[in-house]
Design brief:
mainly alpha, Annexin V, domain 1, 4 domains, 20 helices, 74% helix, elongated
Length: 330
């Protein structure tokens, strides 16, 4: 029963382009990239106004018409932030997420923020598709990659999330009270090392990583009744490091997923520099899911529109492409 409501509730800013003709688009892109210098405006125009499904068809048409790989041609024509954005839009969503996870684990350091942002917010179906894409693209399982790149309790939480095994049902009140009790215990004794702390931590992880969203909302309500505290606030106070950050992300995602992303977008543009990677990753990956909702949460919380924030913080073709994805001023 809850499914249609979910669909009706969340809205992306990018939809199927009416009167779509993949051959026409392929020809226009080919022309835009022919000869010296490329017509970036034309490239942006087409790619940001088609849905992902349509972009895949354009890739096929391009190959049939010219015997060339559109992705490779785009790569040779555009660079920097713009390339990251446009090439990201060209990838099927699960492959895009798989690539972001791979990048987060590449090289010397790990980008924990990116791992958390993706794994804590994707649905079961999305996670399962990411697992398949990861294996197909990198010939290694996502679980193995996480295993070799993270450690301790953080690793266990990410692996649990990466199974995409969250319950799908509604709430169970008795279970919710019991779950809230576990949460209260672990958050009470988080700093006193007692014998069964590990088993409690594991139970807390199981609750946050495997219970359904409606059920967890009930757990958070029961937690407040029981303790007079908000679970998110308590986790922030009592826990630390990547474990804390992952649990907080799960709680925020359960409470209000578009608001979680609005906060991340705001932070990516706040202060002196811009975190283009996060900005791009969220704009690309939410464009067809809930970007309109994210826009609404953004303006409500920060008193300025996402459109204004992007305008004030980026420039050139990258700015144009982001605004096209944003889909309007609020």
């Amino acid at each position: 029963m809850a499914k249609p409501a979910q669909g009706a509730k969340y809205r992306g800013s990018i939809h199927d382009f009416p009167g779509f003709d993949p051959n026409q688009d392929a020809e226009a892109l080919y022309t835009a990239m022919k000869g010296f210098g490329s017509d970036k405006e034309a490239i942006l125009d087409i790619i940001t106004s088609r849905s992902n499904r349509q972009r895949q068809e354009v890739c096929q048409s391009y190959k049939s018409l010219y015997g060339k790989d559109l992705m490779a041609d785009l790569k040779s024509e555009i660079s920097g932030d713009l390339a990251r954005l446009i090439l990201g839009l060209m990838m099927p969503p699960a492959h895009y997420d798989a690539k972001q996870l791979k990048k987060a684990m590449e090289g010397a350091g790990t980008d924990e923020k990116a791992l958390i942002e993706i794994l804590a917010t994707r649905t079961n179906a999305e996670i399962q598709a990411i697992n398949e894409a990861y294996k197909e693209d990198y010939h290694k399982s996502l679980e193995d990659a996480i295993s070799s790149d993270t450690s301790g309790h953080f690793k266990r939480i990410l692996i649990s999330l990466a199974t995409g095994n969250r319950e799908e049902g509604g709430e169970n009140l008795d279970q919710a009270r019991e779950d809230a009790q576990v949460a209260a215990e672990i958050l009470e004794i988080a700093d006193t090392p007692s014998g069964d702390k590990t088993s409690l931590e594991t139970r807390f992880m199981t609750i946050l990583c495997t219970r359904s969203y409606p059920h967890l909302r009930r757990v958070f309500q029961e937690f407040i009744k029981m303790t007079n505290y908000d679970v998110e606030h308590t986790i922030k106070k009592e826990m630390s490091g990547d474990v804390r950050d992952t649990f907080v992300a799960i709680v925020q995602s359960v409470k209000n997923k578009p608001l979680f992303f609005a906060d991340k977008l705001y932070k990516s543009m706040k202060g002196a520099g811009t975190d283009e990677k996060t900005l791009t990753r969220i704009m690309v990956s939410r464009s067809e899911i809930d970007l309109l909702n994210i826009r609404r949460e953004f303006i409500e919380k920060y008193d300025k529109s996402l459109h204004q924030a992007i305008e004030g913080d980026t420039s050139g073709d990258f700015l144009k492409a982001l605004l096209a994805l944003c889909g309007g001023e609020d």
